[in-house]
From TrEMBL, chain A:
Its main location: membrane. One of its GO terms (cellular component) is ATP-binding cassette (ABC) transporter complex. It comes from Streptomyces candidus. This is Transport permease protein. The chain crosses the membrane at residues 44-66, 78-99, 120-148, 154-176, 253-271. Keywords: Antibiotic resistance, Cell membrane, Membrane, Transmembrane, Transmembrane helix, Transport.
Automatic annotation (TrEMBL), chain B:
It is a peripheral membrane protein. It comes from Streptomyces candidus. This is ABC-type xenobiotic transporter. The lineage of its organism: Bacteria, Bacillati, Actinomycetota, Actinomycetes, Kitasatosporales. It is found in: Cell membrane. One of its GO terms (molecular function) is ATP hydrolysis activity. Pfam families: ABC_tran, DrrA1-3_C. Keywords: Antibiotic resistance, ATP-binding, Cell membrane, Membrane, Nucleotide-binding, Translocase, Transport.
């Protein structure tokens, strides 16, 4: 440690216009995304476990538990869209866990003391989580295909279904980030990890609302997860639960509206929280 | 900014946590190119002050300018001119040292290529080249601290904040950090460092501010502070408590006895002369000492003295 320093402050952004600001925001977000990708590269086991868990659930429900309650026809065709929906929804806890862990780390202080874009940490997280979800969906659809699931409505509908699934994941992502910042304690993450199960079962992801008491059926039909699962089944051309309520017959609309509304609420809240962190 | 302008100005800084004040009207001025050491016990408000000056925390009241820029209203401009070594490590434990430095370089908007060369430069400077590709969580505490310091130097900051930079380091690590700070200051960087060690402030700082309960209670050069607190001390440990009184009576200077530790100590002005005089006086009185040591006043002593003055 003998090198001498010259104090030529590195002039960061010579042109400080609005355009360059946006450019730096994008560059910073990409740097933060790369950070997450580097984490994966250093913890491949964790990444694989994250991918294998939903596949395991799919196989368990598909083979061990067998036909769902009140479902006519091929259960696997009913199950796969439900499991895809559930996997996207459970992304909430994954995001919440990583943000909670991240906020507890000193490195966040360094980020906040640097001239970087203040939202980049969150945007980087969301890009990385979305990439992870794309990989996760691909794996699950591949496994689904291998065990006999098929879709029958052509490529455009297929992509539409995938789009709705990722939209749900995106909404869950911002809820997860916000929850982590409001109450980011490991105990709370655990509570959420448990609570997502009853919420998932209170949807038509796995069981059909037909088999439930009517008041519960109504709750289930309005669950955002049900909207996505139903819409995805329609788009894939897979058998769905036959409901007659407004929510059941407008599933496509709700599968768009629910996540968009959730993002509209939680995205600004989360960004504001992060800006105000420890102020 | 000319060399005579202050690099840091803090005026009437206040910050409360719940109803307990952490900073209670703190005032500081640091001239560009100099080192200010902030000395204070646990809970004095050192970290709170550093976090406010480095834009991490908003003050309740008061004015803070770093490099002539208001930290509240123009935080981003301040951020591109400062480096921060926080009290706790601020690096990504999962990534390697090199990955960390490169990432911080990119976030300082050096561009991908310069971020890479700067990372290698700093790894070499801090003797971390060999371990550069290991994850930080496998680093020793000292290595982690050095990497953290390297990370705070990425942008060649005008003003550097160091919050207890050497706490937890071994003597060699401490000397290394001290040398790094000296070479930075040689290059014109302004440094504000907090410490609990008088020795450290003594080694590095041009001026020292002693703070307690969120306020400056004394400020000056190391010599000025030491003379206010009675300068160096000599400690004599005896074999036999019975001889304490006799030893105290023959020793020169303002003498205190500590029965529990079988120790007599006196404040002194000239180290060599005091040592010779004391040894001669004890020998003449036929008193055998177990241990004799000349030392700087401890932070405790400076502190007790200063708080005594404050109360008076
Ligand atoms: N986040 C916080 N919430 C509540 N109180 C706090 C918080 N941070 C600091 N304090 C309180 O503010 C006071 C000053 O704390 P600070 O960390 O600035 O002291 P310090 O001089 O850095 O101490 P140390 O030498 O232990 O690092 C202390 O009484 C501390 O308990
Ligand atoms: Mg502290």
């Amino acid at each position: 440690m003998t090198a001498t320093h010259s104090v030529t402050t590195v002039e960061a952004n010579p042109a400080d216009g609005a355009g360059s600001k946006l450019g730096w925001a994008a560059a910073d977000s990409w740097t933060m995304t790369r950070r997450e990708l580097a984490h994966w590269a250093r913890q491949p086991v964790q990444v694989v476990v994250g991918l294998v868990f939903p596949v395991m659930m799919l196989l368990m429900f598909g083979y061990l538990i067998g036909g769902g309650k009140g479902i006519e026809g091929d259960f696997k065709s009913y199950l796969l869209p439900g499991m895809l929906t559930m996997t996207m929804a459970f992304g909430l806890e994954a995001t919440m866990l990583s943000v909670t862990q991240d906020l507890g780390k000193g490195v966040i202080d360094r980020f906040r003391s640097m001239p970087m874009n203040s939202g980049a940490v969150l945007v980087g997280r969301s890009i990385a989580d979305m990439l992870q979800s794309v990989v996760g969906l691909t794996v699950m659809i591949g496994v689904g295909y291998a065990i006999g699931w098929r879709w029958s409505n052509g490529f455009a509908s297929f992509m539409g279904a995938v789009g709705l699934l990722l939209l749900l994941r995106f909404a869950m992502l911002w809820i997860g980030i916000h929850l982590a910042m409001v109450a980011g304690k490991p105990e709370l993450v655990q509570a959420v990890q448990i609570l997502v199960w009853p919420v998932a079962f209170l949807s038509n992801a796995i069981a059909s609302p037909e088999s439930m008491p009517s008041w519960l059926g109504a709750v289930v039909e309005w669950n955002p997860m049900s909207a996505t699962a139903t819409a995805v089944r329609d788009l894939f051309g897979n058998p769905g639960a036959v409901g007659h309520s407004w929510a059941a017959t407008h599933a496509e609309f709700l599968a768009l509206a629910w996540p968009v509304a959730l993002v509209a609420v939680f995205f600004p809240l989360a960004v504001k929280r992060f800006r105000d962190l420890s102020r | 900014m000319s060399d005579l302008d202050p690099a840091i100005v803090v005026e009437g800084l206040r910050k409360r946590y719940k109803d307990k004040p952490a900073l209670d009207g703190l005032d500081l001025t640091v001239r560009a190119g100099t080192v200010l050491g902030i000395l204070g016990p646990n809970g004095a408000g050192k970290t709170t002050a550093v976090r406010i000056m480095s834009t991490l925390l908003r003050p309740d009241e008061g004015r803070v300018e770093v490099a002539g820029i208001d930290v509240r209203t123009r935080a981003d401009e301040v951020r591109s001119r400062i480096g921060l070594l926080g009290q706790n490590a601020a690096v990504d434990e999962e990534l390697s040292g090199r990955q960390n430095l490169e990432m911080f370089g990119r976030l300082h908007h050096l561009g991908a290529r310069r971020a890479g060369t700067r990372a290698d430069e700093l790894l070499a400077q801090f003797g971390l080249t060999d371990t550069g590709s290991k994850a930080i969580k496998q680093y020793s505490g000292g290595m982690r601290r050095r990497l953290d310091l390297a990370a705070s130097l990425i942008s060649r900051p005008q003003v550097l904040f160091l919050d207890e930079p050497t706490t937890g380091l071994d003597p060699r690590g401490r000397t290394e950090v001290w040398n790094a700070v000296r070479s930075l200051v040689g290059g014109g960087t302004t440094v504000l460092l907090t410490t609990q060690y008088l020795e450290e402030a003594d080694q590095l700082a041009d001026r020292i501010a002693v703070i307690n309960h969120g306020r400056v209670i004394a400020e000056g050069t190391a010599d000025e502070l030491k003379s206010r607190t009675g300068g160096d001390r000599i400690d004599v440990v005896l074999h036999d408590t019975a001889q304490l009184d006799r030893a105290a009576s023959v020793m020169p200077g303002d003498v205190h006895q500590d029965r529990d530790r079988r120790m007599v100590s006196a404040s002194i002005s000239n180290r060599m002369a005091a040592l010779t005089e004391t040894v001669q006086a004890l020998q003449a009185a036929g008193i055998d000492a177990e241990d004799i040591a000349v030392r700087r006043p401890t932070l405790d002593e400076v502190f007790m003295q200063l708080t005594k003055e404050e109360a008076a």
